[in-house]
Amino acid sequence: MRALYHYDEIGLLVASERTPSGHRRYTERDLRRLYRVRALRGLGLSLEEVADVLADSADDPESLRALLAEQLRRLDEHAERIGVLRRRIGDLLRQAGDPYGPDPERLMTTLEVMSVFETYFTEEQRGRLAERREALGPEGVEAARREWAGLVEEGLRHLADGIPADDPRARDLVRRWDALAGRFHPEGPAGAETAAAARRMWRDNSAEIGGSLPWPAERMAGLVAYLEQARQAG
Hints:
Number of helices: 9
Distance between the termini: 75 Å
Structural class: mainly alpha
Helix content: over 70%
Shape: rod-shaped
Strand content: under 5%
């Protein structure tokens, strides 16, 4: 009943008749309009959109088609965001359920890294990166992870041994590092853009990102700076 009163107040469904005592009396035509209101609301349309459809449908049936097409587009976008959230939460739950996985503090750090990731990549770029990761498959991603861990250890040893960033060994390391990262980027100019965004993300947030990794964050920050120096050295 509250919904009926509200519809009446906003002019969406006004009773055509009144009883002698002043109560609303809904006719068969009113009930048909009520069914249409409920049906359109069930499709996720707002009350304002429902009012527009009911006002225009008699003279312009295409207005309903256009509005439903727009609603479908919004639902598709929402479904895509839900899919991303489902995968993200699933990954976090798997980490939390692993007795050797990160503790709650590390999980929060992971969430912070996810937020940083979304800041540096557009939605389109994130979609392309996800496609590349899917193309590599779980085995390919795991192999790349092990290879990358080896490169991190090698780079940290270079830093500990005082190997200059312009040393051939440092330049070879950054070449292999960038080649490995390239597997996760699309080809062509789009890949160059995502690779540049990834380097900016690491450069600006190495401490935060390093907090989610098994190496000390300050050492990872030093390694990122070392690799950038080696990259500039050619």
